Amino acid sequence: MNLSRKIAIATMSVLFVASVGKAQSLDDAQKAVTAEQYQKAKTMFSELVKVQPTPENYFGFGELYLTLNNPDSAKIVFEKGIKADEKSKYMMNYIGLGTVNLFNHKDDAAKANFEKATEDMRKKDYEQYLYIGKAYTYEGSRNLSKAFEWFAKADEYGEKDPRLHVAEGNAYKFQKKNSEAVREYQRALSLKDNLLAVEVNIGEIWTQAFNFELAESTLKSVITKDPNFGPAYRALAENYYRWAPTLPNRQAELLGQAKINYSKYLDLTDRSTESRYRYLIFLFNAKDYTTLEKAASDFISSPGFKKDYIVARRFRGYSSIENGNSEVGIDALNNFITNSSVEHPIIADDYLYLGKAYENQKQDSLAILSYVKGYSLDTTNIEVLRTIANNYKSNKKYGKAADFYDKVAGLSKESYQDWFYAGYMRYFAYANMVSANSTDTALMKSTLLKSDSALTYVAEKTKNLAAYLYKARVEYYLDPVNQNVKVKDAYEKVVEIVTEKPVPSAAENKYLIEAYSSLGAFYIKSDKPKAKEYFDKALFIDPANQQVKDALAALKAS
To answer: With contact defined as beta carbons under 8 Å apart, do 495 and 447 qualify?
Structure first.
């Protein structure tokens, strides 16, 4: 063997040993997690537990899966960690299992696992408390009041552990309590140098507080310390996206910087499945639907796509619908809904977007059905109710439209337009019953009474012309035989409102003719001169009105 070949083989052997050594370092694997190099971290942990199947290594591996919102895989790893602990001295994997229980909403099982983890704690132990508190901060198990209860227990002896202050800072950040979060992060930084992820979190807080310049300088400082720390580029990109709309003159520049920095983040995380998935979230939050639609489509077609990332179909659906590609959006969202799970549940917006897409496709029945399902998942959403009501109105389903306008009006007492439409729709629902020769007199009367109630409320609160006009009509149908004072009073209000205007519109003059004619009819028996006065006023506006002419002729002959 020649010398060069010996040197090459020796060099390769050294590199191989160094590579294996690196994969076997728990610290290095955790650094990869912190750097959001999740695919790399998975590989490192997989190799690590093969070479060193310790309970500590399994716990670190399980935590990674919790971070990735994958409790099923986390459970498998934590259980292996418990089996690997022959002396039953390392209790953290029980906390991991308890966290998985929280993800699955099994609080009693979580409590049992946490008790198991803490039953043999010594007086000055606190780490279990810290990690139980952290268990309540993951997206799938979040209960921050519980988290702080456990952090308070950990604080007695763990006050000088930077991990505790980082965890508390994260919890405050989730609560958007920025001052408290920064305080805890700074405590952590005072206890340990070079916590780059903590500095990134502080930068993100400045972004949340709209202090974009401070966020930029904070994040650029992190990049100066370590140009290969990916999360700093991601946070910087998000800062630029949030900043751009506030500076129209620099918007194009800042959006460009956002894309450049996010591309750097993807490169530094090996464009792994997880980082590409996070990119979709970023684009959605940035409302860059054009880029999102293509990125989501590419992601779904990639080998790394699986059920853990099913929300990508939601992003594809939303973005396609926003971009006017309703058919693609419908297909993507229906696919997501079919494959949804406890970890990735259906939310109200899924059905609201579907409703919008079906409406664009003129599939009104499916649109309404989707909107109603969306409302059932979020009964506080007034706009959904209004959308449903408007859709029923457009399709001339007046009774159903009125029911939903009632709901909107009930949630917002000052929404006079919705109160008006509730009454207005019932007026037309009654008219439809008349046209259909309905014999349900009780329903017809109830419909009119509900219409009258809503219109009266609007009329009295706003002095609205249309409200008085339709109130007068409703009152007439409630009692068309007798002289109805309520009809007279409403039409007098119509006259008052229109005649106060310098130049009434053609529609308003039409209402005025109706009001004068009706007032003339009201007085035709009790006060003929007054009746003639009103008929004359109507004829003055519309000299060719045959109905008014006939009324005057009948009055003269009586």
So the answer is: no
**Residue 138: which of 196, 35, 64, 38 has the closest Cα?**
64
H or E element that contains 23: helix 3-23
Residue reference for tokens 């997501």: 336
CA distance 312 to 329: 12
Cα–Cα distance measured from residue 167 to residue 146, given in angstroms and rounded to the nearest whole number: 13
What are the angstrom distances between the C-alpha of 458 and each of 16, 406, 423, 446, 465? 81, 13, 9, 19, 10
pLDDT at position 413, please? 63
Single out the residue of 287, 285, 265 nearest to residue 276, CA to CA.
Answer: 265
**Residues in the chain with pLDDT values less than 50:** 1-23
Q: What is the dihedral of CA 264, 265, 271, 276, to 10 degrees?
A: -120
**Nearest Cα residue to 451 out of 522, 501, 402:** 402
Phi/psi for 504 (5° steps) reads -65, 150
pTM score, two decimals?
0.65
Give dist(CA 134, CA 87) in Å, integer.
Answer: 25
Q: Which two tokens stand for residue 93?
A: 């994997």
CB 348 within 8 A of CB 381: yes
408: how many CB neighbours lie within 10 A of its CB? Answer: 22
> How would DSSP label each residue in 25-69?
-HHHHHHHHHTT-HHHHHHHHHHHHHH---HHHHHHHHHHHHHTT
Through-space distance between the first and last CA atoms of the chain, rounded to whole angstroms: 133
pLDDT in tens, 136-170: 999 889 999 999 999 999 999 999 999 999 999 99
What angle do helix axes 196-208 and 230-243 make, rounded to 10 degrees?
Answer: 10
The 3 state secondary structure assigned to 479-523 is: CCCCCCHHHHHHHHHHHHHHHCCCCCCHHHHHHHHHHHHHHHHHH
Supply the pLDDT for residue 12. Answer: 31
Helix (H) or strand (E) holding 539: helix 528-541
